[in-house]
Sequence to fold (561 residues):
Amino acid sequence: MRYHEIKGNDEVSIIHDETTGLDWESKSSSEESGRFYRKKFNWEEFSVDYINELNNEKYGGYDDWRVPTKYELRTLVNYNAVHPVFSASVFKNLMQDDYWCGNGYGMREDCAWVLNFGLGATTAAHKTTKNYGIAVRGKKLPGAKERFVDNGDGTVTDKVLGLMWQKESPERKSYNDVMEMLKDFELAGYRDWRLPTISELGTIFNEDYEGKSWYYEEFFKHENLKPPILQHITSNLFKGTYVWVTNFNFGYDGYYAEKFIPLCYRLVRSVNAQGTNFHIPFSGQDKIFSAEGKVVGERKDCGCVSALDFDNYVLSDNTGIAYEKNCKNETYTFSEAKEHIKRLNEQNYGGRSDWRLPTVDELRFCVDYSKKNSAAFDIFNGSIKPEFYWTSDETVANRSWAVYFGYGCAVPVEKEQLCRCMAVSGGVCDLADRSPRRYEISEKVVKDLYTGLMWLREELPLMTAVEAEEYLNGKDIAGFSDWRMPEMKELSTLFNRRSLNKEYMDKEIFPHIYDYPAIFVLAHETFNAMFNWGINRNLCYDGYYADRLNGKYIIKPVRNF
Fold:
């Protein structure tokens, strides 16, 4: 889970955010407590008196509590939700109201920033007004000169957050026109530019108002933009209708824009997976088994599943994908599943209007390979049944791929068959995208810039799963000694299930992969500790078919970079 409570009781409790590394005070439900969740403060009472009191008493054992910046407080906001926009199951004692943030409002000394936890908008408030406050501790986002690098090609890279920005802010366009333009847009040799989220846009907003500007003047130019209105549009929509914007005249933001009104914009792209929130979720299985099924080790390099649980969907922090929750107890043909998706968007289900069928990879991210019947993570609370679920990956002969949540395998299914449907929304990377910009290929290794994984390009001798685990343990290959067996979710990203020529693995990436007599590519996970999972190179089917005692199969070592 993304959040967990430490030092937990009502009087001394901290909520730790695994994603940002920040610690938040947990407000008290006791009216006698100075941290009572309904207590309001003016700016000085909160930023000076309250913060000093926490530090003097070393609340939770720490004396470095402070007022959160706009950026930090915004990390708690889900802009696809309203009333509240925070996780109420975690922050049980937050109010849907204004909270103090920032270091004061630069345009007026008598005002300071507030963020509204009912909607997520930030504005300024007079310092004498009474608002709520929540303290934070932890490492701050570094300053502009430590983060930004001018690439000299019309782009600026944020090396801390892993985002590449369009340096110039072009002539105004509407949200609708920008979305249409992006289909063929190219800058600095890249074609994966997009509108930033409101949170991403906030990372190039100069909260300190240096030089009397909300821009970081040294890095982001705006000669073409003339006041009085410098509202920058984002990718976030309010109830599918209005566009969230940040006003670089006055610093406010909100859902003020119509989709058809020309406004300012600045595009962004993800530099690589290490600089985004995209991380392939853990498979659920961290045990290493001998050929006879005995536990002989444990995987140390697997990240946890991090997700937020909302009323209508589960939002994965690993991937940025929202999964429809509490799916109706119904089955659909493939065309009926598409109609179900259409209805969700018409209803603006969960405050989102971009629902779609998931790819195999996106649906497989929900699989917990340590379980069966149903092989889904606990965050779904039993809403995923041990049955077949449709994906968007269509294949030949009137079939589309489906994931079976009895065990977690993926197979093609006739489109007239009845399967369940779980819609998805959002996300960062299209893992079915095989464009050249995704990969950096050298003689011995290939880097996948979407996933942050490095694959060994050369082919190893055929091995059993146990032999492979032993062979890769600390062995120096191509200059690296941290190779490992891939998880199923990692291995799956190498297969293009939309291929019409049945070459599901790319020969440009792995030129000798089809020279093997064996066709099964092994993964780390086991079934009942006795059979290994893997994927059929020729058919793209997957399952737990590998004979751990005697079977020798294809090994594709992987490492993180």
